[in-house]
Amino acid sequence: MPSETEQKDRANWLGILARARRADIEAVWPAHADPLEFEWLRKPQPGLVMVRGRAGGTGNAFNLGEMTVTRCALRLADGTVGQGYVQGRDRKHSELAARLDALLQLEAHRDGLLAQVIEPLRRTEEERRLERSRKAASTKVEFFTLVRGANPT
Predict the structure, then answer these.
(1) Bridging pattern class, strands 81-87 and 61-76
(2) Which DSSP string do the residues of 67-128 spell out, in sequence order?
(3) In what helix (H) or strand (E) does residue 1 lie, and over which residues does it extend?
């Protein structure tokens, strides 16, 4: 059973792989980088998930709508299972995520892949987040009220 720290690390890199663009993953980790022999447990398949929300982040949960995801699972020769869940219908993206997830669970590959793949993807994600923030801030409108004259009471 993986430790709590290992589970958090895995959740972190799975999130980064799911949010990254496929082109960004391929740029930092070409397909020929780590040829893998694996068997499919579940080939990449698109489907729908229900997205739930909460009003104000704390209210009662409600169904916001459906979102398309593609998922897959594979097993390496040593028995390590890799999972890939990504938004949209990109089968190759989910396969890349599953392959990297499996390799990242192996100590022999982890440090190199964290430095070569996950860290650059995390930085790219942060840069995009900051850019979206800047764009949103540039369109911010502030409203204020002026008091006209004395207010008799």
Answers:
(1) antiparallel
(2) EEEEEEEEEETTS-EEEEEEESS-HHHHHHHHHHHHHHTSHHHHHHHIIIIIHHHHHHHHHH
(3) none
Contact (Cβ atoms closer than 8 angstroms) between residue 85 and residue 74: no
Domain ranges of the chain: 33-126
Q: 61 φ, ψ to 5°?
A: -70, 145
> What burial letters (b/e) apply to 14-39, b meaning 16+ CB within 10 Å?
bebbebbebebbeebbeeeeeeeebe
3-state secondary structure at position 19: helix
Instruction: Decide: pTM greater than 0.85.
Output: no
What DSSP state is assigned to residue 38?
E
Nearest to 72 by CA among 18, 109, 11: 18
The band of 137, judged by pLDDT with boundaries at 50, 70 and 90, is confident
d(CA 44, CA 88): 12
